[in-house]
Amino acid sequence: MNAARDEILARVRAALADVPEPERPADVPVARQYATGADAPAGVQETVSLFVERLADYGASVRTVSPAQTGTEVAKTLASWGAEQVLVPRRFPAPWSAHLPAAAVLGDEGPLSADDLDAVDAVVTTAAAAIAVTGTLVLDGGPGQGRRAATLVPDRHLCVLRAEQVVASVPEALSRLDPLGPLTFVSGPSATSDIELERVAGVHGPRTLEVLVVR
């Protein structure tokens, strides 16, 4: 990476070597007063409420559940989808998957091809963080999240996260994340309107996204 960068910069410098000094642009200072917060309520309850509202605007189903309800609600959601085979990534909290039939659970310990993932009815994951003002989930491949393809190929995605993982703004979320990690930002079910402005679901990810916020 560094060698390629150095080669590119060297070529740029060589190309600019014969540019007369009067023709060179001045080094214009750029203001970097980036926002580090958000115009969102500071309380956890208010922040979660904003997140639920924004994510629902994208067409996702979002519900808040108690810790005692979580395992049951995970099982009920997957049953309502008729999911017979569910991908559960490594280190997904056992209490949250305890009500799933063992025969329905597929782990991601072994190599799974795109065809294997396409045959899965749904994937259930955790998240690294969530952003209230944009209604966004952030996955970084951590415990219970699996690799990126696991949340892009299956048609349905159920995400479970704790209320304290929801922050108000993008800068707050980034401060909790490793910028070198495989970050995936999810704002609602996958959709595009690129062709004739007609909205099509399930283009770059699941058609159905449901989120359970545990608080």
Could you walk me through the main structural features you see in this protein, from its secondary elements to its overall organization?
This is LUD domain-containing protein. It comes from Streptomyces spirodelae. The chain is of the alpha/beta class. The chain has a single domain (42-214), classed as Rossmann fold, CATH 3.40.50. Helices cover 25% and strands 20% of the residues. It has 6 helices and 12 strands. The chain has helices at 2-16, 44-57, 70-80, 94-97, 114-118, 170-174, and strands at residues 61-65, 86-87, 105-106, 122-125, 129-131, 136-139, 156-162, 166-167, 184-186, 191-192, 200-201, 208-214. It has a 6-stranded parallel beta sheet with strand order 1-12-7-4-2-3, sandwiched between helices. A 4-stranded mixed beta sheet has the order 8-5-6-9. Strand 10 and strand 11 form a beta hairpin. The radius of gyration is 22 Å and the shape is globular.
List the SSEs and their pairings.
Elements: H1 2-16, H2 44-57, E1 61-65, H3 70-80, E2 86-87, H4 94-97, E3 105-106, H5 114-118, E4 122-125, E5 129-131, E6 136-139, E7 156-162, E8 166-167, H6 170-174, E9 184-186, E10 191-192, E11 200-201, E12 208-214
Parallel strand pairs: 1-12, 2-3, 2-4, 4-7, 5-8, 7-12
Antiparallel strand pairs: 5-6, 6-9, 10-11
Q: Can you count the beta strands?
A: 12
Instruction: Let me know the largest β-sheet.
Output: 6 strands, parallel
**SSE string:** HHEHEHEHEEEEEHEEEE
- Give the CATH level 1 class: Alpha Beta
What's the CATH architecture? 3-Layer(aba) Sandwich
How does the overall form come out from the CA principal axes? globular
CATH topology: Rossmann fold
Helical region count? 6
Low-confidence stretches: none
Terminal CA distance: 43 Å
Strand content: 15-25%
Provide the structure class. alpha/beta
**Helical coverage, percent range:** 25-40%
Could you give me the name of the CATH homologous superfamily? Answer: NagB/RpiA/CoA transferase-like
| CA gyration radius, whole angstroms | 22 Å
What is the spatial order of strands in the main beta sheet?
Answer: 1-12-7-4-2-3
Average pLDDT for all residues: 88
Domain LUD: 117-214
Protein name: LUD domain-containing protein
Pfam family, one: LUD_dom
